[in-house]
Amino acid sequence: MFPSFSDQRSLCRASATPNGYFLLLLIISVLIINSAACSNRNCQVLDPCSLATDCGPGLYCGNCPAMGKNQPICTRGQATIPTTIINGLPFNKYSWLMTHNAFSIVDAPPLPGVQRITFYNQEDTVTNQLRNGVRGLMLDMYDFENDIWLCHSFRGQCYNFTAFQPAINTLKEVETFLSENPSEIVTIVIEDYVHTPKGLTNLFTNAGLVKYWFPVSKMPRKGEDWPTMTDMVQENHRLLVFTSIASKEADEGIAYQWRYMVENESGDGGVVQGSCPNRKESQPLNSKSASLFLQNSFPSFPVESDSCKEHSATLGELVGTCYKAAGNVMPNFLAVNFYMRSDGGGVFDVLDRMNGQTLCGCSTVSACQAGAPFGTCKNVAVSNTTQTPNTFGSFSGSVQLSGSASTIHFMNLLYFFLLFFSFLVFQL
Asked: What is the pLDDT of residue 112?
């Protein structure tokens, strides 16, 4: 029997004999072999790692202490782009990753001389989110400083301590991405607090995005299929924009979100196991009059270090519950916080399973075969998440820093709560 590493007396006794030396050398050799089992970008998903450079393309080296998994492993950081495997189907047949408050980035600098007091939801730039396969962005837009800003605020008003940046900066990132990737389609969902007449129209025009605009007049209104991905790309209708203000559809030609999609409850109400209620503004999830489905899967109060647990097996269970609640319709958008954090495959594996089931009847999209009959699958295990990553880019943020920002911004959140409740008291 091998001596226990926790039993120092036993180890010393063993090392005092020739057999003990042999056993000790054997143990050391095994440890060295295991530690060197992969490196130099050869490690795959779930392989132990110590550096980001140990992991293959599309992976990073991270851990998940919230689940008791402190050993760093190679973790997925990029989505499989399903149209590279099965293309030409209607837009509403695909499932895409959406980032909740895509602009609310941990390291985003505050306004000069102002301490930002708000929640954070993401860790890398919008450009990098798009490069990693995100295709839906949730943006909160407000009138602020005679312009339109992205703010993570409350009571419908932007303050200097909740402001991030002028919205045009982020929209120009989207324009650059669409320009550089002519076969990609991006969806923007606006939580809209802009009351300036034609404010959003002017904003998107100045950002150079009108040339990609999907016209409201061509959006299906009775639950029909959307145009195919191929047709949308050929027409250059590669930007879908939805607003939460109904009147802007007639006034500015911006689609009213809940006329075209159903949505489950956001925040804590949307992450209760076995439950998937619709958001109050939305039609019932099983409504046949809207052909897009947005699933929110994030808690009310975002915590970086907990998000890896949120993106574990429970995420797949939530998707399954919402799929049934929608009448066996797969969500088209899966909205999450801190999208790259997980215990291995995370949101990316879940999306692969979603697209696999819908596009080809397989357990994962990597098992789909273009041109093959539905249900004809390659022999690919669901747990095999080493498929070729997209070629857009790689992670450049701070995901491997083990939740440091959650600690850094704890006092900000405390101040935010105190400020919010003081506003309530003042109103009373």
From this structure: 85
Number of structural domains in the chain: 3
CA angle 239, 82, 173 (to 5 degrees): 35
Report how many helices (DSSP H) and strands (DSSP E) the chain contains, helices first.
13, 12
Q: Which residues face 76 on adjacent strands?
A: 59
Adjacent-strand bridge partners of 335:
98, 296
| pLDDT digit string, tens, across residues 200-214 | 999 999 999 999 999
For residue 3, pLDDT beyond 80: no
Note whether 271 and 125 are same-domain residues: yes
Do strands 292-296 and 333-336 pair parallel, antiparallel, or not at all (unpaired)?
parallel
157 and 51 co-located in one domain: no
Same domain, yes or no, for 168 and 248? yes
Residue 394 maps to a domain: no
- Say if residue 8 is in the same domain as residue 154: no
pLDDT > 90 in the chain, percent = 78
Domain that holds residue 112: 81-381+399-419
Nearest in space to 338 (alpha carbons), one of 66, 84, 115:
66
The verdict on residue 389 lying in a domain is no
Q: How confident is the model at residue 97 (pLDDT cuts 50, 70, 90)?
A: very high
What is the residue-averaged pLDDT of the chain? 87
Burial status of residue 49 (CB atoms within 10 A of its CB: 0-12, 13-18, 19 or more): buried
Single-letter residue type at 103? F
Rounded Cα–Cα distance for residues 293 and 285 (Å): 8
Query: Would you call 326 helix, strand, or coil by DSSP?
Result: coil
In a domain? residue 391:
no
Residues 258 and 346 in one domain: yes
- Whether 221 is covered by a domain: the verdict is yes
Q: Does residue 13 register a pLDDT over 70?
A: no
Q: Lowest mean pLDDT of 13-17, 78-82, 110-114, 248-252, name the range.
A: 13-17
Within the chain, what is the greatest distance between any pair of CA atoms?
A: 88
Kindly list the distances between the CA atom of residue 217 and the CA atoms of 214, 229, 293, in Å, as whole numbers in the listed order. 9, 17, 20
Residues 6+ apart with CB under 8 A from 260: 219, 220, 221, 242, 290, 291, 292
